[in-house]
């Protein structure tokens, strides 16, 4: 499943729209593939567009997101994951603040409906945060997983904010990929695997309360 990023804007999203068929129609999302949702097992997935759009509450993406979150039955899909391209929280000095307008508009809504994890890219490195809301570590906040380390000819993002912020748990400039395993309504295991040698860089259990 794919979500749009900044490279897709070079063709005004045309290549993305023509190559991918996401369930936007089934979920009442955008006319193209730019935002949508679907259920898979115990997880409700939401994909949003963070690229070159306005984030006012009266516009289509926000209104759709509000309606979509309100319909989620946490007895059936106890986990809610969101994904878009640009991170709200990342301590890499590359692209910092590039999605602050989206955060200011959308974060209250995602926090209200207790989204569990947000998967983002854009920064070509890996980072996992503590649960955050409005730049503060809170027990019921949203964990951000920056997984922009899949590989790109631009190379890795190697420069990090110093000292490491209190909300940042683990960060690494290496190519790799992540694997999330949901066991039941309360337990999830996540690992980030280095592509170079298949070693595990970050190993984490998420226990919902």
Considering the chains and any ligands shown, give keywords for the structure.
209 residues, alpha/beta, Purple Acid Phosphatase, chain A, domain 2, seven-stranded mixed β-sheet, 4 helices
Note down, in words, how this protein is organized.
This protein has 209 residues and is of the alpha/beta class. The protein has a single domain (6-176), classed as 4-Layer Sandwich (Purple Acid Phosphatase, chain A, domain 2). The protein contains four helices and twelve strands. It has helices at 14-19, 24-27, 60-71, 100-112, and strands at 36-40, 43-47, 79-83, 117-120, 126-129, 132-133, 136-137, 143-147, 168-172, 176-182, 187-194, 200-207. The strands form three sheets. The chain has a seven-stranded mixed sheet. The chain has a three-stranded antiparallel sheet with strand order 10-11-12, with no helix packed on it. A two-stranded antiparallel ribbon has the order 6-7. The radius of gyration is 16 Å and the shape is globular. The two termini are 28 Å apart.
Count of distinct strands:
12
- Name the structural class: alpha/beta
CATH superfamily: Metallo-dependent phosphatases
Q: Which assembly state applies to the chains in this document?
A: single chain
Major sheet: size, sense and barrel closure?
7 strands, mixed
- Count of discrete alpha- or pi-helical segments spanning 4 or more residues: 4
- Could you name the CATH topology? Purple Acid Phosphatase, chain A, domain 2
Q: What proportion of the residues form beta strands (DSSP E)?
A: 25-35%
Give me the CATH architecture, please.
4-Layer Sandwich
Indicate the percent of residues in helices.
10-25%
Distance between the ends = 28 Å
- Tally of individual domains: 1
């Amino acid at each position: 499943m794919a979500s749009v990023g900044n490279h897709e804007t070079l063709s005004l999203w045309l290549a993305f729209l023509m190559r991918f068929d996401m369930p936007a129609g089934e979920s009442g999302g955008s006319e193209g593939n730019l935002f949508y949702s679907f259920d898979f097992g115990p997880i409700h997935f939401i994909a949003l567009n963070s690229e070159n759009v306005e984030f006012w509450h009266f516009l289509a993406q926000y209104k759709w997101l509000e309606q979509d979150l309100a319909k989620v039955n946490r007895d059936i899909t106890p986990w809610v994951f969101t994904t878009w391209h640009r991170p709200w929280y990342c301590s890499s000095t590359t692209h910092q603040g590039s999605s602050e307008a989206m955060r200011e508009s959308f974060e209250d809504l995602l926090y209200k409906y207790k989204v569990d994890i947000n998967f983002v890219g854009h920064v070509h490195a890996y980072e996992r945060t503590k649960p955050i809301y409005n730049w503060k570590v809170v027990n019921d906040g949203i964990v951000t997983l920056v997984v922009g380390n899949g590989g790109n000819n631009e190379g890795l993002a190697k420069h990090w904010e110093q000292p490491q912020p209190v909300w940042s748990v683990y960060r690494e400039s290496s190519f790799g990929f992540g694997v999330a395993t949901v066991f039941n309504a309360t337990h999830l295991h996540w690992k980030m695997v280095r592509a170079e040698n298949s070693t595990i860089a970050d190993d984490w259990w998420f226990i919902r309360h």
